Amino acid sequence: MKNVLELINEIVTNGKNRGVGQFTTEDEFYDGRIITVEGNKLINFGSCSYLGLELDQRLKDGAIEAINKYGVQFSCSRTYMSCTLYGELESLVRKIFDAPVILSTSVSLGHHAVIPVVIGENDAIIMDQQVHASVQDAAIKMKAKGVFVTIVRHNDMDELRKKVTELSRSYNKVWYMMDGVYSMYGDFAPMEQITEMLKSHKKFHVYADDAHGLGWMGQHGRGYVLNRMSLHPKMIVATSLNKAFAAGGGAFVIPDEELCQKVRNCGGAFIFSGPHQIPVLGAGIASAKILLSDEIYEKQAALAEKINYCHELLMAHNLPVVSNPNTPIFFVGLGLVRVGYNLVKRMLGEGCFVNISAFPAVPETCTGVRFTITLHHTKEDIEKLVKGLAYHFPKALEEEGRTINDVYRAFRRVANFKEKEEIPIPTSASGFSIQYENSISKIDRNLWDKLLGTEGIIDHESLELMEKSFSQNFEPENNWNFHYYIIRDQIGIPVLATFFTTALTKDDMLAPPESSKIIESGRQKNKYFLTSKSLIMGTLLTEGKHMYLNQNHNEWQKALMLLLDTVWKLQDTQKAVVLNLRDFYKNNTDLYNFFKDQGFIPVPLPDTHVIENFNWESADDFIDRVSSEKRYYIKKKAQNFESLYDVNIITNPSDIKIDEYYELYKNVAAKSFVLNTFLLPKKLFQNMAKKNSWEFIEVFMKGTNHPAGIAICHKSATEYCFLLTGMNYEFVDSHNLYPQILWQIVKRAGELKAPKVSLGFTASQNKRKFNASVIEKIGFVQMKDSFSVSFISTLAGGGKAA
User: Fold this and answer.
1) Following DSSP, what letter does each residue of 695-744 receive, concatenated?
2) Which residues are in the Aminotransferase class I/classII large domain (predicted)?
3) Is residue 248 domain-shared with residue 100, that is, in the same domain?
4) What are phi and psi of 607, to 5 degrees?
5) What is the pLDDT of residues 522-544, one digit of tens each?
6) Prior bond to 360 cis, omega within 30?
7) Nearest Cα to Cα of residue 777 among 569, 614, 583, 596
8) Which of 264, 319, 538, 774 has an alpha carbon within 20 to 30 A of 636's alpha carbon?
C-alpha cells in the first residue's frame, strides 16, 4: 500500500509541476463557462454540474433565504435534533424517487454509514472492478467484520452470475456493488441484465452508486439506474446532491421505511457527524423543486442535444473516443501519461480547461483527456474544444515520439472504443538496427557472453539449457517462448542487448505471502485461477543483469525506445496481459525516469544477496573476516551442527538422485510464497545434471542414505551462483538444515576460488549472516488489465478466494 501511495503522490506531483493540475481559480465572479487560472481565461470543461444549476438564481436565493432565517449552520447531531429545513428537503427528495430516502453530508460518508447497517456478517459483497473508490473503501472495511468481499471484471455479467450462484450456497445475501454511470469512461451498468438477475437469483442484491446519473436523466431527474428500472426491494441506490443537483451531500434511496429508519438510527455518519450546512439545505430545496417540475425535461433535452453535437464533432475529426456517446462524460484516449501532460498543456493554451485521467483511475497505458459537457457550454464552445483537440492531438503524439497505434493498442479492451486497424507509420530509429531471434542458438556465443554472460545464469550455455527445459512440456506454464534482441548503432556496435520470455504466471507472484496463501486455496479447484500470460525480461528463474545498455552512448534513450516499441508489438502478438521489465538498480535515476515516462509502474522486487570480493584461504579465514555477530551466528547455527552431516558435491547425478532432489525441491516450493511461481519441471533438473557447469551439493544426516537437503549451483569463471534448494523439513528446525546448506555453499565457493557468490532471492535474514550484501532491485510493470491487482487488494486482512 505504501508503494502505491508513493506512486500516486508522484503522479499527482508531476502533473502539478507540469502545469496540468491542482489549480485554483482567480475569478471574482463565475458565470459557469469561464474560469481564470494563472491570469488566463479558460472555458471550463471540467465541471460535473451538468445542468448548470449551481448558478440558477433560485438556488442562490434559496441558500440566502436559509442563511437569513437560520444562520450558516445548525450545529447539532441529527440523532438529537434536525434543522427545520431537513423536513422539507427530505420530503421533496422522496417525491423525486417515490421511495424512502436518507440524506448524508457527502456520498462517501453515506457509504460508510449505510453499508455496515444493511450488510450482515453472513452476507457477501461482489464489487465491480470500476465501482467508485468511495464504495470500495467502505466495502473493504467490512472485511474486519467477517464479511466476504471479492471483485468481478467490469460489467462482466457472465462472471457475475457464476459468482452469485457460487456464493449463494454459503451466504444469506450476495450484494453486487456498482456504479450507474462510471466516472472515467462514462459507460453504463447493464441494467437489463441486472434486473433479470434480481428476478432469477433469490439472494442477489444490488447496491448502486448513481452519483453521475442524477438530474440529467430519468423521470424528475432520478438518474440512470432508476430510469432503466423501478426500485427493487433488493436494491439500494446512492446518489449525489452535488454534481447535477448542484447543492450538496448525498441521498440514499432505500426500498422500505423500516430499513431506512434503521440506517438513520445506526449509521455512524448519521449519528456522529455534523449535519448539512444551512445554505446547502436551502439550495437543495430549490433544486429539488426544479427537478419535480416539467422544466427538468427541457434541461435534459437541451443537454442531450449538446452531448450529441459534441460526439458527432469528435467522430468527424476521427478522434479516438473511448467514452459512451450518450453521457456528458467524454474521454479521448492518449496512451502514455506524458502524452496526456502534453495535450492538456496544449489545450490550456487554447483556452480550454480539460482534465488528465491517469493511473490509478485508469490503467497506466490508458491515460486520456477527460472532459464534461454542461448546459453552460455553447455550441461555439464545443466547436472550439473539438477543433483544438483535433489540431493538438497528433502534435502531442509526435512531440512525445508516439503514434496513433499506441492508442489503438491501449484501448482495444474498452467496451465503447471501436477497435481499429493499426496504421502503417514510417518510423526512424536514427540509424539503429535491431536483431531479433527466437533462440539463443542464432546469436553469436562470444558476443552474447561478452554483453550479458558475466552475471547471473544468463550466459549462452545456460540459456540453451533453459530453452530445452521449457519446451514440449505437458503443463502450459512450463512452456516458454524466448525472444532475444540486440540493437546496434549506425556503425554496428551493440548499444543494447536483452531477452524476454512469454510465460503463464501467477498474478500474485509478487503479492504479500498472506494473499498468495488465500489465492492458493482457490487454486485447489482451478490450478490456473488468477493467472495471466506475461512477457518478462529475463525468465522466471534467472536473476541478475538481464539487459545490457550502454548509457554512455549519446542516443541510448532512442535505442531503448526502439526496444519498447518492438516489445509492445510483441506483447500484442503474444497476447500477454503483463509486461515486466526486471532487475534494475534503484539508484539508476535516468532509467527510472525513462521507464516511468513510458507509463511503467515501478515495483520493488525481492532482495537479492551477493558476497563480493570473495577470496579467502580457508573456512576459518572467512569466519575471521566477518563481524562478531555474524561469526557467532555461523558457529552456532552452522559449524556446531556440521558434525551431524555428511556432504557430497555431485556433478552429473543419476536419474534416481534427480528424483530425490526433485522431491526435496517440491517440499520447499510448497512453502514458498514470497515469490509465488508454478512448480518447475523435472526436465530442468535432468538437463542440469548433464552439464558440468552445474553441481549439486548433497547434505546427509550421518548414517543415512538419502539427502536431507540439496543446493543446486552454477559455476562460472566470474561467479558461483546458488539457484535452487530442496529440504526435508523434519530437519529444518531441529538440525538447522538451511543454515547448513548456506554454509556448505560458501565453503564450496571458497574451494573453487570463486570471485563472487550469488545467494539468490529471499531468506534475507539467513543470508546476511553469511556476510552477503543485500542488493535492492526494482522492476517496471505495465498491465493491459488491472483486474488481478484489484482482486488481490480485496484480500488484505484475510478472507478467501472465490
Assistant:
1) EEEEEEETT-SSEEEEEEEEE-SS-EEEEEEEE-TTTTTTTTHHHHHHHH
2) 41-388
3) yes
4) -60, 145
5) 888 888 888 999 999 999 998 88
6) yes
7) 583
8) 774
